[in-house]
Amino acid sequence: MAETPSTMIPLGTQAPSFRLVDVCQNQYVTLEELRSDIATVIMFICNHCPYVKHIQTKLVEVANHYQKKGIHFIAINSNDTKAYPADNPANMILEAKKFNYPFPYLFDETQEVAKAYRAACTPDFYIFDTQLKCVYRGRFDDATPGNNKPVTGADLSQALDQILNHQPVSSDQKNSLGCNIKWQK
Predict the structure, then answer these.
(1) Residue 5 burial by CB count (10 A; 0-12/13-18/19+): exposed, middle or buried?
(2) Which has the closest alpha carbon to 150: 160, 140, 161?
(3) pTM > 0.90
(4) How many whole angstroms separate alpha carbon 1 and alpha carbon 18?
(5) Which of 16, 109, 146, 167 could form a disulfide with 116 if both were Cys (CB 3.0 to 4.6 A apart)?
């Protein structure tokens, strides 16, 4: 497992559109259908990554909290499932049920969406405003496996609170750290 930082696309980047299968609903959905009129959180996660597993319970808690306030969360798995079968759609469904994901869990089989977002690691977080312009990209918080810091979701939550309070999102944003996305060969 090589610790990989997120790419940190430029703030103001327009969210690339997509049409992906929601594995739990077994149907295709688009960004336009899933977006929020307040803010949309797009996160690249997977099933097997220890960095994702480390924050998983708190991530569900944070998503539940902010979705009640009208912010939508979208999870995307872009990993190569031939090399990493633990991340295949059948296992995505099991993972979503096990942790009661309150957000759609989408499968990016061609990896084109991850490339469009310049996603580099799991987890990798982005927040887009009402016009789907990037206002935040970075980490959930400063906890990683083994660093003994509590998982709080503080960085992501601070940005979402600023949006809800009609304040500018702080540009002091830190890279997410995680496992590299498992690219197809």
Answers:
(1) middle
(2) 140
(3) yes
(4) 29
(5) 16
- The residues spanned by each domain of the chain are 3-180
In the chain, DSSP assigns E strands to 3-5, 19-22, 27-30, 40-44, 72-77, 105-107, 121-122, 124-128, 134-138, 177-180
Distances (CA, A) of 176 to 5, 33, 165: 6, 27, 24
pLDDT for the residue 2: 72
Name the pairing type of β-strands 105-107 and 72-77.
parallel
Average pLDDT of span 93-113: 98
* Among 150, 99, 155, 152, residue whose Cα is nearest residue 127: 155
Q: Are 133 and 39 in contact (CB under 8 A)?
A: no
- Residue identified by tokens 């830190």 is 174
Q: Are strands 40-44 and 124-128 parallel, antiparallel or unpaired?
A: antiparallel
Q: How far apart are CA 61 and CA 99, in angstroms?
A: 10
Q: Which fold has domain 3-180?
A: Glutaredoxin (3.40.30)
Q: What are the pLDDT digits (tens) for 28-62? A: 999 999 999 999 999 999 999 999 999 999 999 99
How does pLDDT run across 2-20, given as a tens digit for each residue?
Answer: 789 999 999 999 999 999 9
